[in-house]
Design goal:
The strands form three sheets. A nine-stranded mixed sheet has the order 2-1-3-4-9-8-7-5-6, sandwiched between helices. A five-stranded parallel sheet has the order 12-11-10-13-14, with helices on both faces. Strands 15, 16, 17 and 18 form a four-stranded mixed sheet that branches. β11, α7 and β12 form a beta-alpha-beta unit. The chain is an alpha/beta fold and about 500 residues long. Bound molecules: xanthosine-5'-monophosphate.
C-alpha cells in the first residue's frame, strides 16, 4: 500500500484517486502525523503532495525525515518535491517566473518514472501551480524534465527510486499524469493492481464495525445518492443497529419525500423515521439572507432534529452522513491547515460543536463517481445511483435572498418543469446536475394584455466528473426556449427565465 503525506494542496485527494484507479490501495496522512504512524504504516511507496506553503521559509512544513530512510520509492509533487530537495541537500528559491495552469515539459532525460510514457526530447502538456522552483539538486538527483519557468521541473534518482515533479500529475490537465502515477506505484514500487470497489466495500464495512462496536447509529437520509449509498453500506455492516432519519426541511424537490420513503422503508426494509420539520426550518430561516448563515442554521437545525429523534429512539451514539471528499475539501483543509473555505457544506462545516453524537462518514474519501460505482457494487437501482446530486441545504441555497414557503413552492414547480423537459429530451444522464434558481429580482413583463411584475428564474445545468470543476451544459436554443415558455406558463410568480453559462471555477455549481 501507498502512503500519501498531505501538505494541504486543494488536489491531494486526486492523487489518492489516481492511485486507486491504478488498482493500488492508499491512505492520506497529514505531513505532521506521528512518525510512529508513518513507520508503522508499512508503505511500499510514499507520495508527498503539493501545498500552499513556501519551503524558502524556515517554519513551513517538512516531511518526516524517516520517509527517506524507509528504503521505499518516494515521489514529491510540487511543494512535496521542493521540500524533498531542500531536506536532502538541494536548494529552492522564490522565482519571478511563476507558472499557473497549462505549461509544457521538455523531457530532458530518461527515468523509470517516464518508462513507456515519455521519451527523451519530447514535449508534453502538464499543469503547474508554483511560485518557487528548485535551484540546485540534492546529491544523487539528475534533471529529467524542464519547463519555461522551472529548469528542474522533473528530477530523478533512479538508484534510490526518489522522484520529484514540479507539475501536478494528478489533475486531468496533465493528460499523461495518471500513467506516470501508475508507473510509480506499480512499475517502480511494485504494488499489485488488484484493489477495487469490492475491496473498498469490504474494508469500509470492517471499519464501520470497528468504529461503531455495538453502538446505535442514526443516518440522515436526503434522498440523494450519497446518503443512500452510505445508509445501505452501513446497514450491510451493522444491520438493525442502524435507523435512517429523513427530515423534510421544507426545501426539498417535488415528490422527494415520497420517493425516499418508498425506496428505503418499502424496498430495502431499513428502519426509517420520516419527519416533517418544515415549520421549524423555515421559521429559523425567516429573514436570513446571508448564504453562510443559511448553511450554518440548516446544519445546526438538522442536528437538533437528529438529536430529538435519537432521544425518541432511546439514544444513539453515532450520526452517519454521506459526506464526500469535495464537501470536505471545500469546507476545511484536510490537514486543518491553510486551504481556504469556499463554502461550509452543511454536512461538514455546519455541524455545531456541542453535538454529542460522533460522526460516521464512510464515503469521506470518495468522489461522486466513485460513490456511484460503490452504489452499483451494493446493488442499488440505477435510477437512484444515477440521480443528480442535491445539496443538503436544498432549495435554500437556490433562492438568493430571503427564504419563504411561497418562494420555495414557486421554485419547486419551476425545477420540476425543467427536469421534466430534460428527461423528455433524453439529456438527464448526460448532465451532472441541473436545477432552477429563483432570483430575488422582479422584472416587468406582459402576459395576456396585462402587465406582470414577477420573479426571474435562472436555469443551471453543468457537466462535471467530480463536482470540483464544471462546465455549463450547451443546450440548444430550441430546448431553452421551450423550457422557458413552459415555466412561465405553468408557474405563477415567474415571468422571465435566464440560463447560467458560468463554469466552475470561477463560479460554483450552486449559487450560494
Ligand atoms: P459547489 O456549489 O460548491 O457544489 O460548486 C459542488 C457540489 O456539491 C454540492 N453541494 C453540497 N452538497 N451539502 C451537500 O451535501 C452542501 O452543503 C452542499 N453544497 C453544495 C452541489 O450541489 C454540487 O453538486
Amino acid at each position: 500500500r501507498v502512503l500519501i503525506l498531505d501538505f494541504g494542496s486543494q488536489v491531494t485527494q486526486l492523487i489518492a484517486r489516481r492511485v486507486r484507479e491504478a488498482g493500488v490501495y492508499c491512505e492520506i496522512l497529514p505531513f505532521n502525523a506521528d512518525p510512529a504512524r508513518v513507520s508503522d504504516f508499512g508503505a511500499k511507496a510514499v507520495i508527498l503532495s503539493g501545498g500552499p506553503a513556501s519551503v524558502t521559509q524556515e517554519t513551513t512544513p517538512r516531511a518526516p525525515d524517516l520517509v527517506f530512510d524507509l528504503g521505499v520509492p518516494v515521489l514529491g509533487i510540487c511543494y512535496g518535491m521542493q521540500t524533498m530537495m531542500e531536506q536532502l541537500g538541494g536548494k529552492v528559491e522564490t522565482s519571478d517566473h511563476q507558472e499557473f495552469g497549462r505549461a509544457f515539459l521538455e523531457v530532458a532525460d530518461s527515468a523509470r518514472l517516464f518508462e513507456g510514457v515519455w521519451e527523451r526530447g519530447e514535449r508534453h502538456q502538464v499543469w503547474m501551480s508554483h511560485g518557487d522552483r528548485v535551484l540546485s539538486l540534492a546529491p544523487g538527483f539528475v534533471t529529467v524534465g524542464k519547463s519555461e519557468g522551472a529548469p528542474c521541473a522533473a528530477v530523478a534518482d533512479d538508484g534510490r527510486r526518489f522522484y520529484g515533479v514540479q507539475f501536478h500529475p494528478e489533475v486531468v490537465h496533465t493528460p499523461d499524469g495518471a500513467r506516470l502515477l501508475s508507473n510509480f506505484v506499480r512499475g517502480i514500487a511494485g504494488c499489485g493492481g488488484d484493489w477495487s470497489m469490492a475491496a473498498f466495500r469490504a474494508q469500509a464495512i470492517a471499519q464501520i464495525r470497528a468504529q461503531v462496536g455495538d453502538g446505535k447509529v442514526i443516518c440522515g437520509l436526503s434522498g440523494g445518492v450519497d446518503s443512500s449509498v452510505a445508509a445501505v453500506l452501513i446497514h450491510e455492516a451493522i444491520g438493525e443497529q442502524l435507523t435512517c432519519i429523513f427530515v423534510d426541511h421544507g426545501l426539498l424537490r417535488a415528490g422527494e419525500a415520497e420517493q425516499v420513503v418508498e425506496v428505503f422503508r418499502d424496498h430495502y426494509n431499513i428502519p426509517l423515521v420520516a419527519r416533517d420539520a418544515s415549520d421549524l426550518f423555515l421559521g429559523k430561516l425567516a429573514g436570513v439572507e446571508d448564504p453562510e448563515r443559511k448553511r450554518k442554521i440548516i446544519g445546526a437545525t438538522f442536528i437538533d432534529v437528529f438529536e430529538e429523534e435519537a432521544a425518541d429512539l432511546g439514544g444513539a451514539d453515532f450520526l452517519a452522513q454521506g459526506t464526500l471528499y469535495p464537501d470536505v475539501i471545500e469546507s476545511v483543509s484536510f490537514t486543518g491547515g491553510p486551504s481556504v473555505t469556499i463554502k461550509s457544506h452543511h454536512n461538514v462545516g455546519g455541524l455545531p460543536e456541542r453535538m454529542r453524537m460522533k460522526l460516521v462518514e464512510p464515503l469521506r474519501e470518495l468522489f461522486k463517481d466513485e460513490v456511484r460505482e460503490l452504489g452499483r457494487e451494493l446493488g442499488l437501482p440505477d435510477k437512484l445511483v444515477g440521480r443528480h446530486p442535491f445539496p443538503g441545504p436544498g432549495l435554500a441555497i437556490r433562492m438568493p435572498g430571503e427564504i419563504t414557503r411561497e418562494k420555495a413552492e414557486i421554485l419547486r414547480k419551476a425545477d420540476a418543469v425543467y427536469l421534466d423537459e430534460i428527461r423528455k429530451a433524453g439529456l438527464y444522464d448526460a448532465i451532472w446536475q441541473a436545477f432552477a434558481v429563483l432570483l430575488p429580482v422582479k422584472t416587468v413583463g406582459v402576459m395576456g394584455d396585462a402587465r406582470s411584475y414577477d420573479h426571474v428564474c435562472a436555469l443551471r445545468a453543468v457537466t462535471s466528473t467530480d463536482g470540483m470543476t464544471a462546465e455549463s451544459y450547451p443546450f440548444d436554443h430550441e430546448f431553452l426556449a421551450r423550457t422557458a415558455t413552459r415555466i412561465i406558463n405553468e408557474v405563477r410568480g415567474i415571468n422571465r427565465v435566464v440560463y447560467d453559462v458560468t463554469s466552475k471555477p470561477p463560479g460554483t455549481i450552486e449559487w450560494e
